[in-house]
Design goal:
By secondary structure, the chain is mostly helical. It is built from 19 helices and no strands. Among the domains are: about 80-225; about 225-300. It is about 80% helix and about 0% strand. Helix 3 runs parallel beside helix 6 (about 135-160) and helix 10 (about 230-245) runs antiparallel to helix 11. It is elongated. The chain starts with a helix and ends in a 19-residue tail after the last helix.
Length: about 475
């Protein structure tokens, strides 16, 4: 029995050895098959592509087959002789470029153009790449970079798909960079420096709008250094620097842009008057953009005196823009408060009057500008409070009492002016919380208990529901104070 068992065991061992040999043979056969498959697939890919070219309208299926065959060839490229690798990569680039050109196939292969570029790059970078293959690389990269990627970028930009647009425009530049690196001469692709700068601009532009500020800066900074005449380059860079709290570079790049655009000489001797007109309008619009960037810069940095100067320039250029005089009114109100706080009443009064003036100008430009109407009242209300504090600190001397009486009259005058402007504001927006509170405080001061209760009730309603609908109050007295 023991002998039998040993015999059986030996037989089992023998069977295992046979199976291992069969497995080795199977692996060896598969390797040979894979090698043949990659070679054959490459040949079939080329053949299918030729068939597609014979009738591109009818033989779309051949292009699909070419893509499938070349995918197999690429996946098994290690089994193909190294000297043929550039051929395989270049053919893969050509096939995927054709896929990218076909709308139906492109819908199923969104990254076809990028894959095409990648394969052309691999072919160009391969150690076995030969100079006679330069024409194939040049043709492919010219078609991709000079047509496909720019077209895709423009389409994505129009659709506000900024990240896709960025990838496409950047790929166009990468195609050119690869050709330059390989010293492949092209007579049609980005031959003019202006063409390259234009694509660089849209690459940075797409990156910025897509929220990629770092890559936007990467493309805009060289353009600014070159003295680009696109105001957007300087405008976007200034915003990026300001977000980075690099205020020095922010204002520097704005001033650089203003200098560049101001020095553009438009040749008005040409016959195309429309083109001349458009160019002048472009420069004017660019300078206006940079002026607004300056205003925002000084708002951010709280440089009120400089802001005042720039706002006045902007108002002269854009008199129908109600936001500008309103902002200048706020600047003067801020300067007024600082002057009064510093004890410079004369300067404070001067800025106070300027603030009132520009709030009034705002309402003339736009009679429905609620904030300007409200602020026209709020500035008087706040000044009345400020003067009341001065009055409260006066003594009981005859001189102080006389001064107290004069200040009291001024306080009442300011409250009445505030009240009159608040009534105008209420007709535009009756449910404003600050406006309701202001009315409540004014009626409390003049002891008008009935109207005070009305606004106290409105205040509670607006606290419960910030969007509560309200109509202007119709029970205001004829005058705030009994005269």
């Amino acid at each position: 029995m023991k002998k039998n068992r040993i015999k059986l065991k030996n037989e089992l061992i023998g069977m295992k050895q046979v199976n291992l040999t069969l497995l080795f043979l199977a692996i060896f056969s598969t390797a040979i098959f894979a090698q043949d498959s990659a070679k054959k697939s490459f040949k079939k890919a080329k053949s299918s592509l030729v068939s597609y070219y014979n009738n591109t309208a009818k033989n779309i299926g051949k292009l699909e087959s070419a893509k499938e065959y070349i995918d197999v060839a690429i996946s098994g490229i290690s089994t193909i002789k190294p000297k043929n690798h550039p051929k395989v990569y270049i053919k893969a680039g050509e096939i995927y470029m054709e896929v990218a050109k076909n709308a139906n196939l492109k819908a199923k292969n969104a990254d076809a153009a990028l894959k095409s570029m990648d394969y052309y790059f691999k072919g160009a970078d391969d150690a076995n790449f030969k100079s006679y293959q330069e024409d194939d690389i040049s043709t492919g990269l010219e078609s991709l970079g000079g047509v496909a990627f720019i077209s895709d970028g423009n389409t994505a930009l129009q659709a506000q798909e900024y990240k896709t647009a960025y990838k496409s425009f950047e790929a166009a530049l990468q195609c050119k960079q690869k050709m330059d690196a390989k010293e492949i001469v092209s007579l049609s692709f980005l031959i003019m420096p202006a063409d390259k700068s234009n694509i660089q601009f849209y690459t940075g532009y797409s990156a910025y709008l897509g929220g990629d500020k770092e890559n936007a800066k990467k493309y805009f900074e060289p353009l600014a250094k070159e003295g680009s005449d696109e105001a957007t380059v300087y405008s976007f860079l200034s915003k990026i620097y300001l977000e980075e709290e690099n205020t020095e570079k922010s204002i520097e790049v704005i001033n650089q842009g203003v200098k560049v655009l101001s020095n553009i000489k438009v040749d008005e001797s040409g016959e195309d008057k429309d083109a001349i007109k458009k160019e002048k309008a472009r420069i004017e619009a660019g300078l206006k953009t940079l002026l607004f960037d300056k205003i925002n810069y000084y708002l951010k940095t709280k440089e009120m005196e400089k802001l005042e100067v720039e706002l006045k320039k902007a108002i002269d250029q854009d008199p129908k823009n109600a936001q500008l005089p309103f902002t200048l009114g706020q600047v003067y109100e801020d300067l007024s408060s600082k002057a009064f706080a510093a004890g410079n009443d004369e300067l404070g009064e001067k800025h106070f009057n300027s603030a009132v003036q520009f709030y009034g100008k705002t309402v003339k430009v736009d009679p429905t500008f609620f904030d300007a109407i409200y602020q026209s009242g709020a500035i008087y209300f706040n000044s009345a409070v400020r003067i009341y504090k001065v009055q409260a600190n006066l003594g009981i001397s005859k001189e102080d009492q006389a001064k107290s009486t004069a200040l009291g009259e001024q306080i009442n005058s300011y409250y009445e002016k505030a009240w009159a402007n608040f009534i105008k504001a209420e007709k535009v927006k009756a449910n404003d919380a600050l406006l309701i509170t202001a009315f409540k405080q004014i009626y409390l001061r003049v002891n008008n208990n009935d109207v005070y209760k009305e606004y106290k009730s409105r205040e509670e309603a607006i606290k419960a529901d910030a969007k509560a609908e309200m109509s202007p109050y119709t029970g205001h007295p004829a005058s705030l104070f009994n005269k």
